[in-house]
């Protein structure tokens, strides 16, 4: 009996370490799918909706608020009317989000909504003229409001004519 007792006392630290490793391995193996899905879940929670279009993005970095601005934090001058400082002004730039695998019809619709193309066929013809029909990239794009059709295609594909 003393031999078993001595063996247990001598090897106690090793047994505890092996028990902890076994429990950790069991937890990891049972939760591996959740662990592997975590980055995709975080990305899907933070990406904008497919085809979301933003307008009124200032192209000039000096036109935004800075930390030194001493106002109410809303970016509005109290002397401006209720519609804001840019009422009636055309936006300087538009922001376009293209999701990975997004259909060309949705991209065309968003660009028509922003006023860069008259129709889906107009968009498709311009893409084909640039030989860039398969080169539209996913991501966020800032498109100046005065951009031509060729400029828009160059921005969303990275292909120059």
Write out key terms for the chains shown.
2 domains; Dna Ligase, domain 1; 3-stranded antiparallel beta sheet; 5 helices; mainly alpha; 161 residues
Write structural notes for this entry.
The protein contains 5 helices and 3 strands; from the N terminus they run ααββααβα. The protein is mainly alpha-helical and 161 residues long. The chain folds into 2 domains: 2-46; 48-58 and 91-161, Dna Ligase, domain 1 (2-Layer Sandwich). It has a 3-stranded antiparallel beta sheet with strand order 1-2-3, with helices on one face.
Cross-sheet strand order for the largest sheet: 1-2-3
Compute the CA-based radius of gyration.
29 Å
Mean pLDDT: 74
The CATH topology assignment of the largest domain is Dna Ligase, domain 1
The helix/strand order is: HHEEHHEH
Regions with pLDDT < 50 over 5+ consecutive residues?
56-87
CATH architecture of the largest domain: 2-Layer Sandwich
Q: How would the global form be characterised?
A: rod-shaped
Number of domains: 2
The rounded distance between the terminal residues' Cα atoms is 88 Å
CATH superfamily of the largest domain: Endolytic murein transglycosylase
Q: Please provide the count of β strands.
A: 3
Structural class: mainly alpha
What CATH first level of the largest domain would be assigned? Alpha Beta
Count of individual helical segments: 5
| Percent in helix | 40-55%
Strand content: 5-15%
The profile of the biggest β sheet is: 3 strands, antiparallel
């Amino acid at each position: 009996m003393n031999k078993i007792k001595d063996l247990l006392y001598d090897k106690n630290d090793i047994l505890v370490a092996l028990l902890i490793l076994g429990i950790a391995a069991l937890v990891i193996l049972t939760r591996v799918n959740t662990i592997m899905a975590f980055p995709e879940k975080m990305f899907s929670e933070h990406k904008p909706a497919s085809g979301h279009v933003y307008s009124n993005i200032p192209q000039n970095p000096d036109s935004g608020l800075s930390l030194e601005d001493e106002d109410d934090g809303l970016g509005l001058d109290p002397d401006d009317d209720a519609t804001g400082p840019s009422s009636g002004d055309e936006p300087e730039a538009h922001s376009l989000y293209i999701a990975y695998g997004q259909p060309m019809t949705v991209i065309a619709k968003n660009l028509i909504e922003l006023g860069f193309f008259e129709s889906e066929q107009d968009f498709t013809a311009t893409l084909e003229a640039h030989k860039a029909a398969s080169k539209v990239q996913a991501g966020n794009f800032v498109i100046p409001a005065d951009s031509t059709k060729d400029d828009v295609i160059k921005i969303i594909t990275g292909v120059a004519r």
